[in-house]
Design goal:
Order of helices and strands: EHHEHHEHEEEH
Distance between the termini: 30 Å
Strand order of the largest sheet: 3-2-1-4-5-6
Strand content: 5-15%
Radius of gyration: 17 Å
Shape: globular
Number of helices: 6
Oligomer: single chain
């Protein structure tokens, strides 16, 4: 990969939830049920992002954290049960998760990270929109997607896009995304 201006697109919800469930489980009460656990979660998010930035620092000039909002799919297809099989973990204090996530977004914004949320769109929809808009440029800027979500493989068809899986510490590459989509849809 060439060195130069790259935009790092972080799938915020993926990043946050992949770090939530590696926290130590409390002996009593719910995960993030007290201030100590909330501070620990904020620290985990910050340290892990700083670590990724050090790894990718030679490639990245701009950072965009994409954030979910309620999906348009649920409004358009209310009976389809979009992600209906996912049940919230009752052992997590969810209001605290979102409280920490929102506070973390505010901190990142003060550090020059663009926090991008579109009403009705999930973070992966926001990333896809940014990538497609970028690809229409006469000289598309290189984009790095920080997520292990394989749904992004369909964006690999754009030559300006690379994807990095921070959990497995590797680049995700699909030589033939069309074949991948045909096999997985």
């Amino acid at each position: 990969m060439k060195v130069g201006k790259h935009t790092l697109l972080i799938d915020g919800n993926y990043f946050v939830f992949s770090r939530l469930f590696v926290l130590p489980k409390p002996k009593t009460g719910k995960l993030l049920g007290d201030d100590k656990q909330k501070k620990q979660f904020m620290r985990k998010l910050s340290i892990d992002l700083a670590s990724e930035m050090r790894k990718l620092g030679g490639f990245v000039d701009d950072v965009v954290l994409t954030v979910d909002s309620k999906s348009w799919r649920k409004d358009l297809y209310p009976d389809a049960g979009y992600k209906g099989t996912r049940k919230p973990n009752s052992n997590v204090e969810w209001s605290a998760v979102y409280e920490v996530y929102e506070a973390w977004q505010e901190i990142l914004a003060t550090k020059g990270v663009v926090v991008h949320q579109i009403q009705g769109a999930e973070a992966d929809d926001v990333i896809a929109s940014i990538v497609r808009q970028n690809s229409r440029s006469l000289q598309p800027e290189p984009v790095l997607i920080l997520s292990a979500d394989k749904d992004f493989i369909q964006l690999h068809r754009y030559s300006s896009v690379k994807q990095y899986d921070p959990i497995r510490n590797r680049w995700i590459e699909e030589e033939n995304p069309v074949r991948y989509l045909q096999e997985h849809i």
